[in-house]
Design a protein that fits this description.
Bound molecules: 2-acetamido-2-deoxy-beta-D-glucopyranose
Structural class: mainly alpha
Number of strands: 2
Strand order of the largest sheet: 1-2
Largest sheet: 2 strands, antiparallel
């Protein structure tokens, strides 16, 4: 898989391991991946995430993604929100930043701003708000059986959300397709389109980064 060979991801993963003392000091029978998926970021992780990872996905930096991440993390932190997939900019940010770093950045921000709640790790988040899903796919969302997200739906969603947040910069559509959308369809393995349940699973279990 492409993402496991990205130098940035390898660096982040190494950094993460090095900062999890239990792994070296006292080996535990719990699998490493499970430990990492439930740990709250340390202050050092937070500094590194904001400095090196924000807006970078699969080795490509995009300023419009930074804008989505910024809107997401402050919306969630300033409003004491726990339901991250009930915030449109967070859903869009997850697709351009990766779910794992986005949630960590939100957790860091909630801690920094003194929020009285914290979003849970991805696997424990609430399901994607269906109204947000409907805003992506259109009225067919409400027909029996719903309808899946097409590539064009996704592109419109990204640009529409950037417009909502009054972004200062726009992404290259080729990056939106090949670096953001294609990674979702690869993971869901549902062909050219992605139904609600599969996209919801991607948000919960892809560990994308
Ligand atoms: C969270 O905030 C507390 C107090 O402000 C600080 O001591 C701690 O290092 C912070 N943790 C993270 C992960 O930023
Ligand atoms: C969020 O929680 C903090 C800490 O309890 C509180 O001071 C602040 O007013 C809350 N903000 C909102 C929008 O409810
Ligand atoms: C957080 O703060 C808000 C506003 O002060 C309050 O309404 C809410 O009940 C608090 N939530 C928790 C989990 O303490």
């Amino acid at each position: 898989m492409k993402f496991t060979t990205s130098p940035i991801i390898v660096a982040l993963f190494t950094f993460t391991l090095a900062n999890c003392p239990g792994i070296f000091a006292a080996p535990s029978p719990v699998p490493v991946a499970e430990r990492l998926s439930v740990r709250v970021p340390t202050p050092g992780d937070c500094v590194s995430l904001f400095k090196f990872t924000r807006g970078v996905y699969h080795g490509t930096q995009d300023q419009s993604c930074v804008n989505l991440v910024e809107n997401c993390r402050f919306t969630v932190a300033d409003n004491n929100i726990t339901d991250i997939w009930g915030v449109k900019s967070c859903v869009a940010a997850a697709t351009c930043q990766g779910v794992t770093p986005l949630i960590e950045m939100v957790q860091c921000t909630q801690n920094e701003t003194g929020s009285n709640v914290t979003v849970p790790d991805a696997s424990q988040t609430e399901s994607l708000d269906y109204n947000i899903y409907a805003s992506i796919v259109g009225d067919c969302a409400w027909q029996e059986g719903g309808c899946p997200i097409t590539q064009q739906n996704y592109i419109d969603f990204v640009y529409g959300t950037l417009s909502d947040i009054a972004t200062s910069t726009w992404p290259d559509v080729n990056n939106v397709i090949t670096n953001w959308w294609d990674y979702i369809t690869q993971w869901t393995a549902t062909g050219e389109t992605v139904p609600y349940l599969n996209f919801n699973d991607w948000l919960h279990y892809s560990n994308s980064q």
